[in-house]
What does this fold into?
Amino acid sequence: MRIAVVGAGILGLAVARELSPSAEVTVLDKEDRIAGHQTSHNSGVVHAGVYYAPGSLKARLCRRGMGLLRDFCSEHDLAYEECGKVIVARDAAELPRLDEIERRAQANGVPGLRRLSGDELREVEPHVVGQAGLHSPRTAIVDFAAVARALAEGLDIQLGFEVVGLEQRGGHVALRSRAGEQLVADQVVICGGLQSDRLARLAGDSDGPAIIPFRGEYYRLRGERQHLVRGLIYPVPDPAYPFLGVHFTRRVGGGVDVGPNAVLALAREGYRRRDVSLTDVREILAWPGFRRLARRHWRTGASELYGSVSRRAFVARARSFIPELRAADVEAAPAGVRAQAIDADGSLVDDFRIARTERIVVVRNAPSPAATSSLAIAEHICAGLRSASPRPAG
It folds into this structure.
């Protein structure tokens, strides 16, 4: 069987690796390198399954994926550091939300979870101030780009192949590149990340959900101030908003990042403020779900934009956890872009969403913890592919 996987990020590579022992697999990507976008522009956190609704795909696949990823890193001698995470309730108003997160984490079987008082919180993170917290000691950090490179070993990967045509012809699918190249496959798996909705439409799937790009901007603690953070420090998230808010993340390669915010990007791959695509902007504004979202959350959007243009405002949010922090303690760090799927009614798609036809599987939404869950998502997709594989006649 010939299978084409569109997208050489960590998820596409994990799918190809899962399929390759029993099929002829080719990975296609429009870039000149693997893991060029979300895989190499993220915080590197291996999530333990704390936040996700029990029974959801995120909850199930994150827990499974974490174990698979830990074993994969051990087998390939890749750094995997269980530095732990604290989720901090700054005041009494945040305690009910912390209670709900604790309930979810327990239902999801998060290992080693512990409720902390304010004093116990400072034992774990001495410079943090808060009323209470949750400690997830098994939350870890890795270099997901390095994981992707290990996954890619031995795979047939065609770079510079931007898929602009997908046509189902009887018993196979023909994929056409912008340069006019053609590849024929029996089945196709689309793991297109920031381009997933466009690729889904090429495959004949519905218009929605649409991908709206949000840039996550980071600062990094200067070397002499990195002692302020031992592991990972997160706020109690707002359940009405899918972004976790500004937090502190230690990196396996050294350093501590502060962020991200969540600012509407004016290009799907707009890692810099000056990156603007008129085509992308037109698509964003034309999608009714974005307009409905903007009407509901314009105040939050304005606040995020203010934090984007003002370092002091950005750091002030982080200082609510670590009062010692000052604007002079940080320097700019690389940004990432989150592919946020939004339905036509303006709701933000939270869970992983995977669409299937007879011969094409499209990953329509795979935000965090998709990197953590990548090996488990690959298992999930490939099990469905095998069960749906057309049987030869006779």
Q: What stands out?
A: The longest helix spans residues 288-309.
